[in-house]
Amino acid sequence: MKTIKAMSIAAVAALSLMSAASFAQSVTATSLTLDGAEAKIAAQAQQQGQQYKILEASNGNVVHMTAELYK
C-alpha cells in the first residue's frame, strides 16, 4: 500500500512539473550587438503579451541569444 501511495505522489509531482513547463516557450534572435538581440527578444515577448528571461547569449561574428517567454 505504501508503494502505491509513493508512486501516486511521484506521478502527481511529475505531472505538475510538466504542466508548468508547458507554459514556457523558447525563442531565439540574432543581431550584431547584444542590445539588438535583446530588443528582438523583447519585441517577440511583447507581441505575445509575455515576459522573458534570457537563457544564453553567445558572440562570434554575430550575437545569438536564446530566451524563455512566460506569463
Automatic annotation (TrEMBL):
The keyword Signal applies. InterPro entries: Dodecin-like (IPR025543), YdgH-like_sf (IPR036275), YdgH/BhsA/McbA-like_dom (IPR010854). Residues 26-71 form the YdgH/BhsA/McbA-like domain. Pfam families: YdgH_BhsA-like. SUPFAM superfamilies: YdgH-like. Gene3D superfamilies: Flavin-binding protein dodecin. Residues 1-24 form the signal peptide. Keywords: Signal. This is DUF1471 domain-containing protein. It comes from Pantoea endophytica. The lineage of its organism: Bacteria, Pseudomonadati, Pseudomonadota, Gammaproteobacteria, Enterobacterales.
